[in-house]
Design brief:
Helix content is 28%, strand content 13%. By secondary structure, the protein is an alpha+beta fold. It folds into two domains: 7-83, Beta-grasp domain (Ubiquitin-like (UB roll)), CATH 3.10.20; 91-177, [2Fe-2S]-binding domain (DNA polymerase, domain 1, Orthogonal Bundle), CATH 1.10.150.120. Helix 3 packs across helix 6. The longest helix has 16 residues, at 108-123.
Length: 191
């Protein structure tokens, strides 16, 4: 059986440069997790359907399970570990904590990376499929819940923590997220 030759590839991950010999068909996610120990990005579906593996490549979000590692040679890769640290979280990480933007936490690294990219896209004037006026892109101060949900639609949360995720993005964008208590309806058990 013929084995693919390994090719030297230089990957810059979270400001650290690594040169690794890789088969051409290995994914970025497998290199991150199995070869280099960056395990924050999760392998959910391994088919680009859940977003748990979302990382930033030169500031743009991608599914690491679909990206060939050799194609990232010379690019800047940021994983969840590169956004902040336990002593100083990234503002989006802080917003996720403060708004309960997670339950089991498995999808959270991908959700946070996608949210960081979402906020950068808004700042750059990028529109989405549901932006009402293509000549007037949304602003951070006014981005709607629907716009946030659309822009994060490639990231699934199987625990359904979506309200907390949206609130976290709103907070990170400088908005005042709705109070979680406002979303809870309590039935009177005495009736």
């Amino acid at each position: 059986m013929h084995q693919n030759p390994e090719i030297p590839v230089t990957l810059t991950i979270n400001s650290t440069s690594y040169t690794v010999n890789l088969e051409p068909r290995v994914t970025l996610l497998d290199v991150l997790r199995d070869r280099l120990g960056w395990t924050g990005s999760k392998k959910g579906c391994d088919h680009g359907q859940c977003g748990a593996c979302t990382v930033l490549i030169d500031g743009e979000r991608i599914y690491a399970c679909l990206a060939l590692a050799i194609m990232q040679d010379g690019k800047t890769i940021t994983t969840i570990e590169g956004l902040g640290n336990p002593d100083q979280l990234h503002p989006v990480q802080t917003a996720f904590v403060e708004n309960d933007g997670f339950q089991c936490g498995y999808c959270t690294p991908g959700q946070i990376c996608a949210s960081v990219a979402l906020l950068d896209e808004i700042q750059q004037g990028s529109v989405s499929a549901i932006t009402p006026d293509l000549n007037s892109p949304p602003q951070l101060e006014t981005i709607s819940e629907a716009e946030i949900r659309e822009r994060l639609s490639g990231n699934l949360c199987r625990c359904s923590a979506y309200n907390g995720i949206v609130a976290a993005v709103q907070q990170a964008a400088g908005q005042t997220p709705p109070s979680p208590a406002a979303e809870i309806l309590v039935e009177d058990a005495s009736e």
